[in-house]
Design brief:
alpha/beta, Rossmann fold, three-stranded antiparallel β-sheet, 10 helices, binds 2'-deoxycytidine-5'-monophosphate
């Protein structure tokens, strides 16, 4: 499937904890656009591998899983994203640190990335798409209308993640989270296929010390001034 010049795409890439998911969701809602949470697809491959006893080193089986993934996204009555694998609601399971680490491992496998490529492209539907991930602007939607690379300091990202988990009643040490985030950043940035880096034509947006509303507004201003 080729990119469609008639359907606008806004890509938001960046490291874990930069706030991509939250900002992408707010921007998509404000514009009435579709949303692609590409990280969820890698997380779902890791999660299905775990439940079906497939090793995270088995590239062939993982690519098959990625190809056949029976996934559906919708939202609950509060407008929050819900993720279904078959008829199971896996929204909470998909967000655990363990699934995130597994996702970062399966994301290093090029056959898995290839299997997910067309699936991601298919999200480009009218009136427009906001796509968040690591390689949205560099690989999946290289002709995107607006490309953003969202960052935040490592300390701030660890703090945000800590608060998120605490709000969910999960008690994880801040130091352990910082280490996990650094490990994941390293794996995502140093892998040979589609590593995490800003597209040449991306605008860099540092969200350190900024509220969700302020960052969302910056993106919406950029969209309005395209
Ligand atoms: O954004 P996230 O934390 O849900 O992503 C989970 C992992 O998936 C991340 O560590 C790297 C991988 N990923 C990727 O390689 N490419 C994407 N477009 C999105 C996520």
């Amino acid at each position: 499937m080729t990119e469609r010049p008639d359907v606008p795409v806004i890509t938001i890439d960046g490291p874990s904890g930069s706030g991509k998911g939250t900002i992408a969701c707010k921007v998509a809602t404000a514009l009435g656009y579709h949303l692609l949470d590409s990280g969820a697809l890698y997380r779902l491959v890791a999660l299905s591998a775990q439940t079906s006893g497939i090793s995270l080193q088995d590239a062939h089986k993982l690519a098959e899983l990625a190809h056949d993934l029976d996934v559906r996204f919708d939202s609950n009555e509060n407008g929050e994203e819900r993720i279904w694998l078959g008829d199971e609601d896996v929204t909470t399971l998909v967000r655990t640190e363990e699934t995130g680490a597994g996702a970062s491992t399966v994301a290093q496998i090029s056959a898995v990335r290839r299997a997910l490529f067309e699936r991601q492209r298919a999200f480009q539907q009218a009136p427009g798409l906001v796509a968040d991930g690591r390689d949205m602007g560099t690989h999946v939607f290289p002709a995107a209308t607006l490309k953003i690379f969202l960052t935040a300091s490592a300390e701030e990202r660890a703090r945000r993640r800590h608060k998120q988990l605490k709000d969910k009643g999960l008690d994880v040490s801040l130091a352990a989270l910082s280490r996990d985030i650094e490990d994941r950043d390293r794996r995502d940035s140093e892998r040979s296929v589609a590593p995490l880096r800003p597209a040449k034509d991306a605008r860099i947006l540092d969200s350190s010390g900024q509220s969700i509303e302020a960052v969302t507004q910056t993106v919406l201003d950029w969209v309005a001034n395209l």
